[in-house]
Each structure stands twice: as C-alpha cells, then as structure tokens.
Design brief:
The complex is a heterodimer of chains A (100) and B (420).
Chain A: E1 26-32, E2 34-35, E3 38-39, E4 43-49, E5 55-59, E6 66-73, E7 78-84, E8 92-97
Antiparallel strand pairs in A: 1-6, 2-3, 4-5, 4-7, 7-8
Chain B: E1 7-10, H1 23-34, E2 36-37, E3 41-46, E4 53-57, E5 68-72, E6 82-90, E7 93-96, E8 110-113, E9 118-123, E10 129-134, E11 143-147, E12 166-173, E13 189-190, E14 203-204, E15 211-212, E16 215-220, E17 228-230, E18 243-247, E19 251-257, E20 270-278, E21 281-285, E22 287-288, E23 296-298, E24 318-320, E25 331-335, E26 355-362, E27 367-377, E28 387-391, E29 394-401, E30 410-418
Antiparallel strand pairs in B: 1-18, 2-8, 3-4, 4-7, 5-6, 5-8, 6-7, 9-10, 10-11, 11-12, 12-13, 12-16, 14-15, 16-22, 17-23, 18-19, 19-20, 20-21, 21-24, 24-25, 25-26, 26-27, 27-30, 28-29, 29-30
The chains are: A mainly beta (100), B mainly beta (420).
C-alpha cells in the first residue's frame, strides 16, 4: 500500500493575509520581468499595499520571467517593485496595480 | 485550470434544515442530486481581458464566493460547464472564473449551484426514504440509504412520534434491488451487525421507549446544553439551523447545528457527519446508538457523537468496513490528530491558516486512509459560520464545530482545490 499521508495542505505565505468579505472579487496580479526586452528570472518581485506601504508578498519569477500573486481581491490597491538579484540594475516599480 | 470538483452548500444559500420531517432528504436531494436553481439571467457579459463571465439575475441568487455554479442551455455549448464563483459584487450579480476572452455568448440558458453528482436510485411513495449513489459509480461506490420513516413497515409495532427529535437513519450498502432491500445477510453494510442485518433500519416499540434505528444523523431537537439530547424532548426546537455540506461525487460531510443551545459567544454546537468512498474504502461518520427515545444521550461519550472533536474513546470514532470483499461487522476508527481542539488550540497559528490532513487508523491498529478535503485547523477562525477562504492559490471553506475546548468552540477547514 502507498503511504497514508498527513500532509500540510497548501496555504499562503503572504505577509499580509487576504481577508474576504461577502462582496470580494478574487483576483491576481501577474506580469513578467524583462531585462532589455528579454525574459529575466534573476529578480525578487515584491507586491506592496498602497494602503499601508507594507509588503504583501515576495516572489521570484519563473524561468521565463513570469510572476504571479494569487489570492488577492480586486479592491486592493498595490504597487509592484522588482529588485535585480544580480545587483546590476536599480529596482523598477509599477505603480497602481489592481488585481484582476 | 480552476478546480471545480469539491462543492459546498450552506444555510446562507437559503437552504433549510429545520424542524420539519423531510428537511434532510430534501436538502440532500438539492445538494447531492439536483443542485439549487438560480433566478433567471437578465444579462451576461464576458470580460475581454480575463474571460470571466458576469451574470446578472432577476432576483437574489444567495450564492457565496468559491461555490461552483453550473451553466446549462447556453450557446455555444462550450459555455455549459462548471465555474467557481470569484466574485459576488451584490445580491443579484455573480462573477464566474472563466478563461475564454474571445467567447461570444449567443444564447442564454439557466444556471444553478452545481450538485455534488449523485443519482436517486430509489425513493418511496411516502417520500420519507431515499437511496443515493454516485453518478457513474464504480463497484466500490456504496448505496447511501437515508430513512426518515416514523413507523415500522407493519405500521403498528414500531412508532416514533413526529414531535420527537428529528434524525434520519443513515447507512451504506454494497448492493440494493429495492428501497427496503437491507435484510440480506450476504450484502455488506456500514454500520453492520451480521447477526441482524436490519439493525440500522428497525423501529421497535411505541411511546417513549421506542427504539428507532442505530446510525443517526440528528438535525433538529431541543437541548439545554450542547452535549446532550433526549429524543422525546423536542418541545422548543430551533428555528435557525446552520450548516455546511461539502464534498464530491465520492464523499461528503455535513457539519450542522442540531439544537437550540447557544452559548453567549455564539458557540455553534455543530457536529460532523459524513460518508463516502476513499481509494476503494468506505467511511461513515454518525452517532451510533440503540437508545430508547426517553434515554438521555451524552454526545461527548456516545459512539460517533463527535468525530475528531472530543478525546472520549467512543465519541471521537468514525466507522469503516473491515474489508469490502468480505461481509462482516464494521470496525471503529479514529483520526490521527495533534489534539482534540481543532480550530481553537492555535497550535500552528504562525501562518495565515493551518490546514492539516487527517489520517485514519482502525481498532486493529491498521492505517486505513487519509480523509479527503477535511483538515484539522491549527489556527482558529473564531466563531464564523460557513466562510470561504482564499489562501494564495488555495481555496477553503471554514465552519465551526463543537470540540474539547467546549465554550470556545472550534472548526474545520475543507480544502476545495486550487483557484488556478
């Protein structure tokens, strides 16, 4: 027989949890990191709240530079900052990002 | 792809499980078989960026975030499938998570809260009994018999007063030819006593010493506390029944408030019931008792009364078959849990939520299965009722329950899958 599991089921490591209200609309922020127009994965991408300027979550992009922050709501006001892990370039910001 | 397999229903959908005989069967008909039809659709739009479908209804839809809605009768036919609700902006609008940005809906159909996926195999003329079975069943899928009869088949030797506590006799059978086909000693049942195959379905005696069935799913009675009940005592039944029903075509759980007792902190006194098939094995969660109606039952010490909620040797139990291939009596089983304070001890409250699977072992110390969907909650969600939770990409629904902490209350998470 295969092992009987007692897994920890998946949950968010976000630094600020998403609180759902009855009228919340679930959304996500997705994008991609590029260097000189080419997909770039050596970055740390931080999603910040524009309400309290605190980080909500930190992600590394996939190999193709894509990143995603799931389990948000469409009424959240955020901005995204990408830091170059190779420390060759200054951070870039995308302001006024609304989860969809 | 969004998971659209595990569905949940709640009293918040406008569904009733109250002081009426027939309420449990009617609720199971909706949740397991037919679904809950939604009002007529007056407008539908497709978001050109995301493909999400927004529906506006002619009346209150009473749906909740993360429930599964099914569309039927639309054109093109590709629209006719299941969706997760990703937004409930108001009472008459739903946003369904979809992904075809180029979709053009040419003809509008109907919608409903999607049922878990069962058929009614048998029903009786008096409409007090049902046998359900998963759609497209394998040989391992049980026949689920739910019996709300109040009298023995002969109509006289067994009579249970309609004013007494409301519960159904519930059990699983491996095969049935008709709705009352439960006396064959060669057919496996759960629960099962091979010396008395009809034990779970008999009503014997009259007046307040009647004995009605064995495996009991209570849904309405009066009690002066959250831990005891006497079937004859239903003089002030509750009018505000609260529940969550969660599952798939293979299994389901019912967490319901069954009595009128309410602690000052709105402690919900819900207990867990359920049944299904997991990797070819059956399980049943139910209170087992052949009590007389006038005998007081202490739920916290009665077999199966409080699965996972109490460290009593009897009440924490659930029930499994020993072996689906051999007709013999059932075996008692227990969950492997960090403690009996799910949702209140906050053992693992360092994270956003703390869902832990519940493995099961039986009385012969055999590891048997891990229950699907239901999770021990290492972090409390307080006294909230049916509450959808999104935790990054993972979907859950929480509901509270009785547990060892007594007045503080506790609860379970039910994992619904991934949002994409």
């Amino acid at each position: 027989m295969k092992p009987i599991s007692r897994k920890v089921m998946p949950f968010s490591n976000n630094l600020q949890p998403t609180e759902l209200t009855p009228t919340s609309v679930v959304g996500s922020v997705k994008g991609s990191v590029k260097k000189f127009g080419q997909n770039y994965q050596n970055a740390n991408v931080v999603l910040y709240s524009k309400v309290n300027f605190q980080p909500i979550a930190i992600r590394k992009p996939k190999e193709n530079g894509d990143y995603g922050f799931l389990g948000l709501t469409t009424d959240m006001k955020t901005f995204v900052v990408a830091f170059d892990a190779n420390k060759q370039f200054n951070a870039v910001i995308q302001d006024n990002v609304v989860p969809k | 792809m969004t998971d659209v397999n595990v569905q949940f229903f709640s009293h918040l959908n406008g569904l009733n499980l109250g002081n009426n005989w027939g309420d449990l069967i009617r609720l199971l008909d909706i949740c397991l078989v037919n679904g809950k039809p939604l009002p007529s659709i007056i407008l539908q739009t497709v978001d050109p960026e995301s493909g999400d479908i927004t529906l506006e209804f002619s009346a209150n839809h009473s749906c909740m975030l993360l429930q599964i809605v099914e569309l039927n009768g639309f054109s093109p036919s590709s629209v006719n499938t299941k969706y997760r609700v990703k937004g409930v902006p108001n009472d008459t609008t739903l946003i369904l998570k979809a992904d075809n940005k180029d979709l053009i809906i040419t003809s509008v159909g109907t919608s409903k809260l999607s049922p878990l996926g069962y058929d009614i195999i048998f029903r009786d003329e008096a409409d007090v009994k049902r046998v359900y079975r998963s759609k497209n069943p394998t040989a391992q899928h049980p026949f689920i018999r739910v019996d709300e009869s109040l009298a023995s088949p002969d109509g006289t030797t067994g009579m249970y007063a309609s004013t007494y506590a409301k519960y159904a006799m519930v059990g699983l059978l491996e095969h049935m030819e008709h709705i009352d086909d439960y006396e064959n000693p060669d057919v496996l049942q759960l629960p099962f006593d091979p010396s008395d195959p009809a034990k779970n379905w008999k009503i014997a005696g009259t007046g307040d010493s009647v004995v009605r069935g064995w495996s009991k799913w209570y849904w309405c009675y009066y009690s002066s506390d959250s831990y005891t009940l006497t079937e004859t005592s239903n003089h002030s039944p509750m009018s505000n029944p609260r529940f969550t029903l969660v599952g798939t075509k293979d299994y389901f759980y019912l967490l319901n408030k069954y009595n009128t007792w309410t602690h000052a902190s709105s402690h919900e006194s819900k207990t867990l019931k359920g049944c299904g098939v997991v990797d070819g094995d059956w399980f049943l969660m139910s209170l087992l008792s052949t009590n007389r109606a006038n005998q007081k039952i202490i739920i916290t010490s009665t077999l199966g009364g409080l699965p996972f909620g109490w460290d009593d040797a009897s009440s924490q139990k659930i029930f499994l078959t020993r072996d689906l291939a051999i007709v013999q009596n059932h075996v008692e089983a227990m969950g492997i849990l960090p403690d009996f304070y799910t949702g209140s001890s906050n053992l693992y409250n360092g994270g956003n939520i703390a869902p832990l699977q519940i493995p099961i072992f039986d009385a012969s110390k055999k590891l048997r299965m891990t229950l699907p969907s239901i999770c021990y909650a290492g972090k409390s969600y307080s006294y909230k009722l049916t509450t959808p939770i999104i935790s990054e990409g993972s979907m859950y629904v929480w509901d509270n329950c009785v547990n060892r902490s007594g007045e503080l209350g506790g609860g379970f998470y039910f994992y619904l899958g991934e949002v994409e």
